[in-house]
Amino acid sequence: MNRDALQGVRIADFSWVWAGPLATLLLSFLGAEVIKIESRKRIDQTRHGSITTGDDFPNYDASPIFNNANLNKKGVTLDLKRPEGAELAKRIVAVSDVVLENMRPGAMDRLGLGYEDLVKVKPDIIMLSSSGFGSSGPYREYAGYAPIFAAFGGLAYLTGYEDGEPNTMSGVMDLRVGTVSAFALLAALIHRQRTGEGQYIDLSSSECVSALIGAELMEYPMNKRSPFRCGNQDAIMAPHNCYRCQGDDKWISIAVASDKEWQALCGAMGNPAWAQDEAFGDVYSRWQNRARLDRHVAEWTMNHTHYELMALLQSAGVAAMPSFSAEEILSDPHVKARGMVSQIEHPVMGKKVVISPPWKLSETPARIKKASPLLGEHNEEVFGSLLGMSRDEIKKLQDEEIIY
């Protein structure tokens, strides 16, 4: 039987919303045991809802948003503001390998759960703190919402149409931060495996975003050019855009990188007379006249469906792909064949469709084993079986609203 890549790794997860939970979700796919620590006094916001869906879920255990970000995890409830709750959290950390949190800088320290506190109970602990701008510097107290650090990190300014406003992309930026966090934690686990040393990782979401635009950041110091928004255009290729097709809000992306691909596109279009214009005679000329070229291509694509064009252009050797709607993605034959979505049984919501792990690993397959935890679902298992507390002790702390 195949083993899990992170079998035996336990994570104490104090994070909430998206940036932190996605990181531990990815590690749970690889087999890490994740214990999510929350409280009825500080519910994970995604149990309520989200900016896009609203707060209309019937109860805390009926949020598909929360389910998608917390698959495989165990869940306990602890009031960390109570000294007894913080001490129980330390006991969980003492038997864990990794701690992750994405509160504002200083919040964990005020709870007595900062790195200097936790390293005393687990000397080789790996702790990652994810915040908008890191735990030091003049911006450390700034809110860490995705539109803020996406803008400060530079990506929002570069994303959008040339004559439009920057696109902050909102929650998707949280997910990029979660991916970087998971990568950093894997590197830290490898380091500890080799040296026996734990470490503290102070992760800035803004810097995660800046790391995605290295080439653009180097444009000014190296070439004295300041990059700007250019929609779907490319700095070299033309045509390179999304073009309207038949149907309501249907589009196809087309990218032509060479004269050979240009001739292939012309052939697919039936070699129209306008394509012989010397303004489109070579790569640079096409780029210089890309606005006029786009209008000609769009006049052709509007007479076909995006699926027809995908088949026609790809068979001709031209890079082309529809801009799929969510419904089209979920029903796409290739998506189904690759197993990119899975169905999981949730004890409250029933069968739910979720995104599958993003890797195909032959010897250590990434897996979805269970739905997200109900609120406090694993209190008995974690406090009883893992920490060795008696039922009377657990009941007393529940009555006192410490395990709550």
Task: Outline the structure in words.
With 404 residues, this protein is α/β, with parallel strands linked by helices. It has two domains: 261 residues, Rossmann fold (3-Layer(aba) Sandwich); 91 residues, formyl-coa transferase, domain 3 (2-Layer Sandwich). The protein is 40% helix and 14% strand. The protein has 19 helices and eleven strands. The strands form three sheets. A six-stranded parallel beta sheet has the order 3-2-1-4-5-6, with helices on both faces. Strands 7-8-9 form a three-stranded antiparallel beta sheet. A two-stranded antiparallel ribbon has the order 10-11. The longest helix is centred in the middle third of the chain and has 25 residues. The model has no long low-confidence stretch (mean pLDDT 96).
Order of helices and strands: EHEHHEHEHHEHHHEHHEEHHHHEHHEEHH
* CATH fold-level topology of the largest domain: Rossmann fold
Radius of gyration: 25 Å
Instruction: Bin the strand percentage.
Output: 5-15%
What is the CATH level 1 assignment of the largest domain? Alpha Beta
Order of strands, main sheet, comes to 3-2-1-4-5-6
Helix content: 40-55%
SS content category: alpha/beta
Number of strands: 11
